[in-house]
Amino acid sequence: MALTSLIVCPDASSVEVLQSILAALEIRTECHPDASPIQALLDHQPFDVIIVDFVEEREAAVILQRIRSSPVNRPTLVVALVGSENDVRQIFALGTNFVLYKPISPERARASLHAARTLMRRERRRSARASAYIPTTLDYANIEKAQATLLDLGEEGLSLQSEHKLPPRCRVYFQFNLPSSPALVRLSGEVVWQDSAGRVGIRFADVPQSSRRILRDWLRESLAVANNAGASAPAHSRPTPPAPQKPRPPASRADDGLARFRASPGNRRGGARHACRLGADVYRLGGSVPHRCSLSDISMGGCYVEMPSPFLPGQAVEIRVRTTELKLRVQGVVQAVHPGFGMGVQFTLRTSEDRDQVQHLIRLLAEVKPDASVGVGDPWTR
Predict the structure, then answer these.
(1) Which burial class, exposed, middle or buried, applies to 295 when counting CB atoms under 10 A from its CB (0-12, 13-18, 19+)?
(2) What is the pLDDT of residues 15-63, one digit of tens each?
(3) Which domains does the chain have, with CATH numbers?
(4) In Å, how far are 183, 320, 367 from 260, measured between CA atoms?
(5) Is 0.85 topped by the overall pTM?
């Protein structure tokens, strides 16, 4: 099945360059000079990559919102065409995967779109996936009970985060419990791809009927919940695959925020969760060394901190965030850890001022419009 792309750009010269490169990459292209005819199209026709010109930022932000709330294009790769007048950090926060600067350089565009094509091939699947941050153990080759975390699940395969490099094309055996289900799922699969960050794609090879039935029922419920949540998602939400548990705004595939607390049932938290993309610094409590990170989800109970080397469970931390509206300094305790990916932090809000600051930040995230800005600045220092 051919890869497909959508270009939303009024600049004929840029479109010509992009069409030539995409044709060379064997990607079919559909072009529109403005957003008006594509709104309904995004809800019904899936694309592998969508290229949006940010010459009109408000219009482009609306397109991004529509893409990330679409049941068929939520996981689609998005490339933004930007100029010197655009705020690239804010554009990434809207859910963009790649950025191309104008005027478009054919060489740079070719390199970026070639990288995007690799991801398109990897992510193209015949069945939908639901996010599922679930700890599991792997048995393969001469290795037993290797630790890993499932990232998403479908009827035909899954992706996971592994602490070890797996042999190419090897058979993998594992078992796990799905969130909110006591039944054990047992299955085996084959390694299809893996990257340098430890993420691995698995195609199912043998799934017992009982496990397939459990998986299918859970997927049906999870995807229905995610689609309902996506219909009312805020524009600033970061894209992710559909969430497997409670309704929440979609955010990005690389990060699914507090959904990761499902890895440890005792750490589940109440309160509304708000997807975000906020630069921050996290410190070990009492320490002076900042660790650059991003917050991808936040509630009154806690947040998810994306960083390649998360701290150990039980570590007391201090998180510092600065937006255009406020400065936030909040303490917490690490609850859930996912090596190479991040950690869930439970807040310890000791004063009314602490609670007011977190509530203020959540209110900003909940009320922001596509053309508004919850600006992200450099975290403040001591």
Answers:
(1) buried
(2) 999 999 999 988 889 999 887 777 778 877 888 899 999 999 888 999 9
(3) 3-123 (3.40.50.2300), 130-218 (2.40.10.220), 268-367 (2.40.10.220)
(4) 20, 21, 24
(5) no
